[in-house]
Amino acid sequence: MRLWILVICVAIQACLAFTGLKEPGSFHKSSILRESSSASREATCSNLESALDGCLSDISKTCNAAVGWSQTTGRLGLIATCDIKKGGLILNMPYDDRYQLTADTARKDVFGGILPESYEGWTGDAGLIALLILNEVARVDGCGVQLPERPENINSFMEAWVKSLPSPEEQKEMHPLLWSEEDQEVLQSSSNTKVYRALDDLEEDATWLIDNIFSKDRTKFPEKINWNGQEIPGFSLEGYGWAMSLSQSRTVFVDAKLRLLPLMDFCNHDDEGLEIAGGYMGTFKTTPGAQLLAHKAYKKGEEVFCSYGPKSAADYLLEHGFCPPLCWKTAVSEITLELDPEDRFYNDKLDILEFETYDQAPMDPTQSFDVVSAPGRDGEPDPAMIQFARLRCLGGTDAFLLESIFRKEVWGFMALPVSLQNEMAVVTSICDLLQRSLDDLDQNVTGGPEVCRKLRESETKALTRTLEFLQREKQALDLKEYYQERRLKDLGLDSEWSPEDDMSPDLGFGTSRVPGGADYDW
335 forms bridges with which residues in the sheet? Predict the structure, then answer.
């Protein structure tokens, strides 16, 4: 009897091994999930395709791509509907507030009269676009602000777009804003671009909106929303965080404005791709809009790609939730310099930053700068950082440059070394800041996503190379030309004087008097 039981168990194990399963019942569960996932993908693509067909002429002048499932990324992407040559137009979309999401649309149209005109969130334009995303999701559930008004065909497309968005649970796996607290803590210790700073900004804006807007009308702004047959967070901290992760990962900055363009936002990233850019379209090329060109030739049925732009690994991770291969080739970290409020010349320096930086925009007293390790720039600091640091350290005998007579020129003076004392203070202060940043990263952090380890190594390299560069620079400060030498040279007073230098061969006398030294023959 025992022998038969043993034989049966071995047979069961053999069958499980043949099917690649580990336990009875897992075949049924996994096959159901695969079928459900596949069916969901097909339904999503079919709904988008049907809705897009009904409004394509309203949202695009030329569209040579359709939404399909990406074999590369495992999510939705754009698939070529015809052969496209290199440099050819893949897709263009006019700027139309009936479907594009921008901060201006939020302020003036959708939340006009609801948000105060003076509202300035810490999350900026991305936060206002996140509000619009939440509102679009709520509109599908019959709540929210039913603006902007749209024709039925565009409204159907926007509903299909909303239903195709990644769920909050999916975003938790993809975007650092929604990671677990443990993983966020590891990321915080792995980069100088702090995720806690972004989380604090998000929480502060969400709290203000809940207290001042959402809680006053929970019929219009419910805490929970029905979406794709499930209940998800709505106008709440969790819902706003989900919307922010979508806003940051799907928006593009084009024609001086942050925009989310449904349809174009499905395009996935490729390091070799071209960025979405502004252009003109229509019969007479007079309609402004965004367009995507092909960086290579595509065959019909191939996925088309764009580039999300030149960004550091930390920026890609915090905005898009991934780090493409190219961003690892250049090690980048970030340091922050700030004017000292206790500095006796603080107000003078603040005035210069606000009004006297020439044609540049007014500068804040706190500035963040990238430090980079890359071929051709291995640790060499950003000239703008050194310029700001010179103003920051200006004092002592150099403070005369802050006098009103120099006010229009002092920012330009900071582009070049001021004095040995000032340059020493600049190099020393930045070296100290770099060392503190390295100490913060040099912790025995364990666990967390693998990308955090790579990010920590990359930023450590950038900080180390910059520190080494400045330490070498510190040894050669006496070889630099400072303000005093440059000024004397401009006046022609940079050499020793002798009587022969002040004599004119044409006149026979010097151009200046020599008291008691002339031999006049009267």
Answer: 369
Report the distance separating Cα 247 and Cα 135, nearest Å. Answer: 13
* Dihedral angle sign, alpha carbons of residues 145, 148, 150, 153: negative
SS (H, E, C) 265-288: HHCEECCCCCECEEEEECCCCCEE
Read off the pLDDT of residues 457-479 as tens digits, 9 standing for 90 and up.
999 999 999 999 999 999 999 99
Between 15-29, 275-289, 471-485, the lowest mean confidence (pLDDT) is in 15-29
What does the block give as tokens for 346?
């603080």
Rg from Cα positions in the chain: 31
pTM of the model: 0.85
Which 3 state secondary structure label does DSSP give 136?
helix
Mean pLDDT (whole number) for 153-170: 97
Q: Are 280 and 289 a contacting pair, CB within 8 Å?
A: yes
Could you give the dihedral angle defined by the CA atoms of residues 478, 481, 487 and 493, in that order, rounded to the nearest 10 degrees?
70
What b/e string do you get for 187-223 counting C-beta neighbours within 10 Å, with b at 16 or more? bbbbbbbbbeebbebbeebbeebbeebbeeeeebbbe
| Interacting residues of 23 by C-beta distance below 8 A, sequence separation 6+ | 16
Alpha helical stretches, state H, 165-299 = 168-174, 181-188, 195-212, 237-250
- Residue that the structure tokens 């679009």 belong to: 136
Q: How confident is the model at residue 40 (pLDDT cuts 50, 70, 90)?
A: confident
Given a cut of 80, whether residue 368 has pLDDT beyond it is yes
Task: Give the pLDDT score at 500.
Answer: 66
Residue 446 has phi, psi (to 5 degrees) of: -125, 155
Is the bond leading into 499 cis (omega within 30 degrees of zero)? no
Q: Which residues contact 76 (CB under 8 A, 6 or more apart)?
A: 44, 45, 67, 68, 69, 70, 164, 266
> Residue 16 is inside which H or E element, if any?
helix 2-19
